[in-house]
Amino acid sequence: MRPTPQLLLPTSQREPLFTTHGIVAANFVLDISKIWDTHTGEMLYSLRHNHIVRAVAYPPDNSDLIATGGMEKKLRVFDLAELSAAYPGSPATIPADAGFEIGEGIHTSSIKFICWTNDPNTIITAADKTIRWLDLPTRGCIRTEVLDGEIGSCEMVSLAPEYSASSDIGGGKSVLAVAAGKTAYFWGGDRAMDRLKSITLPYTIASVGIDLKGRKIVVGEEPGTWAKVIHYDEEVELDVHKGHHGPIWSIAFSPDGKLYATGSEDGTIKLWKNCEGFYGLWQGVAERTTE
């Protein structure tokens, strides 16, 4: 029996979150995270919080666990398999205190991003200038790093298994990519605790994405509207993408690494080809973008 693809809607999240079996997390309003069945459009759960939700995450094993965080300054994990029995209804309304808090009292500012690592027992949060690694079994914080500036983006990046290789950045595993101040940071390993590299630029960046196979990064300037492509190893600028009319808050690569998207405050998402020859709508002559 295949898992039920679901749609999770938190508050104030800038970009959708996709998992490998059709689960999507996207924007909503106020203090409610809503979970939908993407096959039927039925709303399954409504997770009530006490303040605005800014981030959600699913574990890599696609279980029924969902992590949420935001302006409550609390990282909560909900076990939907257990809670669905305790809170019947369609949709089931689940209160905030039904989730268990991880790292109680350690977050002193709003949680902007949550990343679940390859190790399902390790969750990462980004708040203000601080990255925290939290352990699910003990519910404690196991590591903290204060970065050089306000965190603009924090994402786990990976290729689909059939496209990944040991020669990729991160050795074929997921890489944590973080933009903070003027620096792009990268961590690898099962728990994303191994610092791979940091690249400091002459300008502040709002976001960063990484091409694991092509060994490039893409950053969004702040303030600014351009996306800049930079060589990961040589740290030299390779290209500049223009076309947005607002800051670029999110950059994401496709599972095959041959396409990436930039999401801007101007309300548009632009797709950029990251390979030679034909790909999708592109004809293999000049590089183009599409919205």
From TrEMBL:
<dbReference type="Pfam" id="PF00400">
    <property type="entry name" value="WD40"/>
</dbReference>
<keyword id="KW-0853">WD repeat</keyword>
<protein>
    <recommendedName>
        <fullName>Serine-threonine kinase receptor-associated protein</fullName>
    </recommendedName>
</protein>
<keyword id="KW-0677">Repeat</keyword>
<dbReference type="InterPro" id="IPR001680">
    <property type="entry name" value="WD40_rpt"/>
</dbReference>
<comment type="similarity">
    <text>Belongs to the WD repeat STRAP family.</text>
</comment>
<keyword id="KW-0508">mRNA splicing</keyword>
<dbReference type="InterPro" id="IPR036322">
    <property type="entry name" value="WD40_repeat_dom_sf"/>
</dbReference>
<keyword id="KW-0507">mRNA processing</keyword>
<dbReference type="GO" id="GO:0000387">
    <property type="term" value="P:spliceosomal snRNP assembly"/>
</dbReference>
<dbReference type="GO" id="GO:0003723">
    <property type="term" value="F:RNA binding"/>
</dbReference>
<feature type="repeat" description="WD">
    <location>
        <begin position="241"/>
        <end position="273"/>
    </location>
</feature>
<dbReference type="InterPro" id="IPR015943">
    <property type="entry name" value="WD40/YVTN_repeat-like_dom_sf"/>
</dbReference>
<dbReference type="GO" id="GO:0032797">
    <property type="term" value="C:SMN complex"/>
</dbReference>
